[in-house]
Write a structure and sequence with these properties.
64% helix, Rossmann fold, single chain, ABC transporter transmembrane region fold, alpha/beta, 21 helices
């Protein structure tokens, strides 16, 4: 899995190679400076202080100050460039993940789930970003300083360097134990973050249902369970960290005591100058601090590896809806839709959701699609704009298969109103202009009038500039549906697709809206899915679905005579007299 972390870093650091090499060079300068200072300090003590040579003290002191200033300057530049590279890296990865998710079909979105995709684009990216930042400031410096300090310690005193044969293996064993314990916990932690996001999103979205069914206490306990699972995993990681730092500090301090103890004996016998002991102490500290830095990175890398794996899973997952490399365009955009023996089935499913679907939706004709719950109505509509792709057969738009046209061209011809009316945070005007950014106020009011939404918008103090909360929750269900329909009208598409978009409207508003919409879209193709029979009685063409197959096509009068499924649907909502009228 580690190669995925390396792959992620390599892929997104290409634009910043120059900056990374500058940071590496400055780290090298900083490390060399840190290694050279103890040697100068030893010379200062041995040849300056011990002999009382004031000139030597000033000269070596000035060199030490200059090196210290160089190290400080390098540290500032390193911190600046490291933070710039890591923040830019995080920005680029988040953008890449977002673009990948935007490309996904409904199938991939359902596979990952919204809570997991949010976690991957926030928490997971942050983990990799943090490792990059720490890596640029620590990972490069630790080996340079550690190896250099070992060489300098051996050069200073070989006999004292034997203490490293005890301290470093002791730290290595501790690191090995920590990694074996922590690595699995990091993977579990990311999954539990996904879980808590899922529960929280469900509870916020379904707060009215929770209250209506008096399930507040139950949901509190469900959230507490997910929260406690995450807390317990985090506590396990934290306890391990709590053991690590005191243990490493203990080894560090014991090593320092041993150096002073044995170094004092060497000084006493004249085998070692006192300045060399101070230098050796500095090198020992640098070696052990390098090991501690390596430990910190070793503990961060496993979590970043788990996060990189989850990020790459999103980036490397291809959409089942593939953009054609050789897009074709019809000679004229009219909005003619043709289904030719279309089938759709989910991967691995035994039976198709839709099969043998063949019909034509023409401009200036209202085509209604009806059927019982689960008959495949919404799936059929999702095939037209290629939210999902048919498993077999063809869907032609103006004579050309939608798979042979560019996605943007297909989408640009469609005004889509989904089953669940959704509005974006902003204003009424910004929502209506979503499909046509340069729409004038007159066009917006015209669309609102057709959608029977002008009255309640006029009643608002700010009119078109009235605020819309996320999801449009400050509007009723019927108002959201009408604003969604108005948004599609503003786009002035060739094809209108309305997926049960009248369900929250009263009968009077429903009737007025249908009449106004049919008049406004008389030259466009109008495809409507409806559960309410009264909505589609006047449709020019009604397609009846039953268990994913077409059970009948025709107008209301014809289907009442020839289609039993349609008769059952109509008579379940209308009396025989109303159905016959």
């Amino acid at each position: 899995m580690r190669h995925l972390l390396v792959q992620t870093l390599r892929e997104f650091l290409r634009p910043y190679k120059g900056t990374v090499w500058v940071v590496v060079f400055l780290l090298l300068v900083q490390s060399i400076g840190n290694l050279y200072l103890p040697n100068l300090n030893a010379d200062l003590i041995n040849n300056g202080v011990a002999k009382g040579d004031i000139g030597y003290i000033w000269r070596i002191g000035a060199i030490m100050l200059a090196i210290s200033a160089l190290i400080i300057g390098a540290s500032i530049v390193i911190a600046y460039f490291s933070s710039k590279v890591s923040m830019s890296f995080g920005r680029d990865v988040r953008k890449a993940v977002f673009v990948s998710v935007e490309r996904f079909s409904t199938r991939e979105l359902n596979k990952f789930g919204a809570p997991s995709l949010i976690t991957r684009n926030t928490n997971d990216v942050q983990q990799v970003q943090m490792v990059l930042f720490m890596g640029l400031t620590m990972m490069v410096a630790a080996p340079i300083t550690g190896i250099g300090a070992v060489i300098m310690a051996l050069k200073t005193n070989v006999r004292l360097s034997g203490l490293l044969l005890v301290a470093v293996p002791a730290m290595g064993l501790l690191i090995y134990w920590l990694l074996r314990r922590i690595v699995p916990l990091f993977r579990v932690m990311q999954v539990r973050i996904d879980r808590i996001n899922l529960v929280l999103r469900e509870q916020i979205a379904g707060v009215r249902v929770i209250r209506a069914f008096v399930k507040t206490r139950y949901e509190e306990e469900r959230f507490a369970g997910a929260n406690n699972e995450l807390a317990q995993t985090t506590l396990s990681v934290t306890r391990t960290f709590a053991i690590m730092f005191p243990a490493l500090t203990f080894i560090l301090n014991i090593s320092s005591i041993a150096v002073i103890w044995f170094g004092a004996k060497l000084i006493d016998t004249g085998s070692m100058p006192i300045g060399n002991l101070t230098a050796f102490l500095s090198y020992i500290m640098q070696i052990l601090m390098s090991v501690m830095m390596a430990v910190m990175m070793s503990l961060m890398i496993p979590r970043a590896e788990a996060s990189a794996e989850r990020i790459q899973e999103v980036l490397l997952t291809p959409s089942s809806v593939i953009e054609t490399t050789d897009p074709k365009s019809p000679k004229a955009r009219k909005g003619l839709i043709e289904f030719k023996d279309v089938e759709f089935r989910y991967p691995g499913a035994e039976h198709p959701v839709l099969s043998g679907i063949s019909f034509t939706a023409k401009p200036g004709v209202m085509t209604a699609i009806v059927g019982s719950t689960g008959s495949g109505k919404t799936t059929l509509l999702n095939l037209i704009p290629r939210f999902i792709d048919a498993s077999a057969g063809q869907i032609l738009m103006d004579g050309i298969d939608v798979r042979d046209q560019s996605l943007e061209n297909v989408w640009s011809e469609i005004g889509f109103v989904p089953q669940r009316a959704f509005l974006f945070g902003g204003t009424i005007a910004s929502n209506l202009k979503y499909g046509k950014a340069d729409a004038s106020d007159e066009e917006l009011w015209e669309a609102l009038t057709v959608a029977q939404a002008d009255e309640f918008v006029k009643e608002k103090e700010d009119g078109l500039n009235s605020p819309v909360s996320q999801g449009g929750t400050n509007f009723s269900g019927g108002q959201r549906q009408r604003l969604s329909i108005a948004r599609a009208i503003v786009k002035q598409p060739q094809i209108y697709i309305l997926d049960d978009s009248f369900s929250a409207l009263d009968y009077s508003t429903d009737a007025k809206l249908r009449v106004a919409l049919e008049e406004h879209a008389k030259n466009s193709t109008l495809i409507v899915v409806a559960q309410r029979v009264s909505t589609i009685l006047k449709a020019d063409q009604i397609v009846v679905l039953n268990n994913g197959k077409i059970d009948g096509i025709g107008n209301h009068a014809d289907l009442m005579k020839s289609c039993k499924t349609y008769q059952e649907i109509v008579l379940s909502q209308l009396s025989p007299e109303e159905a016959a009228s």
